[in-house]
Design goal:
The complex is a heterodimer.
Chain A lengths: L13 H14 L6 E7 H9 L10 E8 L7 H11 L4 E6 L13 H6 L3 E5 L2 H10 L4 E8 L4 H14 L4 E7 L2 H9 L8 E4 L2 H6 L5 H7 L3 E3 L4 H16 L5 E3 L11 H10 E3 L2 E4 L3 E4 L3 E3 L8 H4 L15 H5 L31 H9 L5
Parallel strand pairs in A: 1-2, 1-7, 3-4, 3-5, 5-6, 7-8, 8-9
Antiparallel strand pairs in A: 10-13, 11-12
Helix pairs in contact in A: 1-10, 2-14, 5-6, 6-11
Chain B lengths: L1 E3 L2 E3 L15 E4 L2 E5 L2 H12 L7
Antiparallel strand pairs in B: 1-2, 3-4
Chain lengths: ~375, ~55
């Protein structure tokens, strides 16, 4: 039996949601629009699941950001992973969300597995290490993806592999950073944002200080918010107040889990194992400088790209798919011609339809019958 | 060992120092990333319920 969840259920209270909704409605200025981007896919999911858009006045628009880790990985990197999985010496281990992300010609890891590739779904990076220990005659590659939340566990796995001399383990590293992506979004003139709802778990790792540049360089407010619906609504209220008073500072609604410095142990670990790539390709955002990590020379022996001589080829997005514009916040899923027809969670054409954190999948599951 | 709404699950505390039995933690892909501050959690709930729309 599943019981009540303390510090979760209270943040989903319907009566408080209506109360917050009333406060927001009272404070918005009728003559203006408020365009706020929720950077993180976890917020996108919460906004659709709890129907938050319906609790906001018409002048407040929530724009969905690129913070969905599987959505931002470009097709070229997926193709590389699929090619690697087809190497008969290799066991490819990855998070479940990666399995259905389409590469070129709608190939994906599920199909590769059906064709004989050894692909294993794992829950945590430590599972990949265990697979390597259990299969000493095979090469176990961890197809590692994600923002600052999944990066520290990968760092721990690499350090453990070095410590144990686990020679058949390596990492195909696709870890990316939140601040450079936010910069990429803010440099995009079409997005026209009035403020940003900052991510929950990522901020627990990098801290509120990591967002100061948004206020300083772009003059936009950020409110870091928890993942629950009332957190998101309170963050919207705080952003509305900043906009109304012409303020642009970094505020923290998620004080119960996020501090100014973040998790310094996790940060030190990332710095010990990884260094920044000069440039990395993102789906939708293109090549962003210093936006992703690779293994440091001290850990180069665990770098799958070096071990298997992998090279990155940029591959264009399928023509019909608007995933790129959706990730940049300039289009909504309903603007896409294939949304809900040719492209569904069962048969995704673009990555935004795959993960529950993707804007298209969230919109398909919870929002497609809403009036525009 | 953590309890997620009644489901027991083993997670790693390698990324956090000084976690005690009974603490609430924020968990991501099997690792605790942050400890929940219960006092702040209550303060935030009180903030939601504030009657007046005006700022402090």
């Amino acid at each position: 039996m599943t019981g009540a969840m303390q510090y979760v259920d209270e943040y989903r209270d319907g009566e408080l949601a209506r109360h917050l909704s009333g406060k927001i409605a009272k404070e918005v200025h009728a003559e203006r629009q408020y365009r706020f981007m929720e950077f993180c896919g976890g917020h996108t999911h919460a906004i659709f699941r709890y129907g938050i858009a319906d609790l906001l006045p018409p002048g407040v628009k929530l724009i969905h950001g690129p913070g969905c880790p599987v959505c931002v990985l470009p097709i070229g990197r997926i193709d590389s992973a699929i090619a690697l999985a087809k190497n008969p010496r290799v066991i490819l281990a990855t998070y479940a969300d990666m399995m259905r992300v389409p590469g070129s010609h709608f190939a994906n890891l599920i199909r590769a597995r059906a064709e004989g590739a050894d692909v294993r779904m794992i829950y945590s990076a430590a599972d990949a290490l265990n697979i390597a220990r259990e299969n000493p005659a095979r090469e176990v590659v961890f197809f590692a993806i994600g923002f600052e939340t999944t990066t520290p566990p990968t760092a721990l796995a690499v350090r453990q592999a070095k410590c144990d001399g686990l020679a058949n383990f390596s990492v195909f590293c696709n870890h990316v950073l939140t601040p450079p992506a936010l910069r990429g979004i803010l440099d995009e003139p079409d997005a026209m944002l009035d403020g940003v709802i900052g991510p929950s778990h990522v901020s627990a790792v990098i801290g509120t200080g990591a967002y100061e540049f948004v206020a300083k360089d772009y003059g936009k407010p950020v409110v870091i918010a928890g993942f629950e619906p009332l957190d998101v609504m309170q963050a919207v209220l705080m952003l509305v107040r900043q906009v109304n008073s012409a303020h642009a500072v970094i505020e923290n609604e998620y004080v119960r889990a996020v501090g100014a410095e973040g998790n310094m142990k996790a940060q030190a670990l990332m710095d010990e194992v990884f260094e920044l790539r000069e440039s990395f390709e993102w789906r939708g955002l293109g090549w962003l400088p210093w936006s992703a990590r690779k293994l440091k020379p001290d850990y180069a022996e665990f770098d799958a790209e070096a071990r298997f001589g992998m090279s990155h080829h940029a591959v264009p997005e399928p023509k019909a798919c608007e995933c790129g514009d959706i990730l940049r916040g300039v289009r909504s899923p309903k603007d896409c011609k294939v949304f809900g027809t040719a492209c569904t969670p069962e048969h995704p054409i673009g990555a935004c339809m795959v993960s529950s954190e993707g804007a298209c999948a969230a919109y398909f599951s919870y929002g497609r019958y809403r009036a525009a | 060992m953590i309890d997620i709404g009644g489901v027991q699950k083993e997670i790693s505390l390698e990324l956090l120092d000084d976690v005690a039995v009974g603490d609430y933690v924020v968990v991501h892909v099997g690792y605790a990333l942050s400890r929940l501050n219960e006092e702040e959690a209550q303060n935030t709930l009180a903030l939601f319920a504030e009657l007046d729309g005006s700022q402090e």
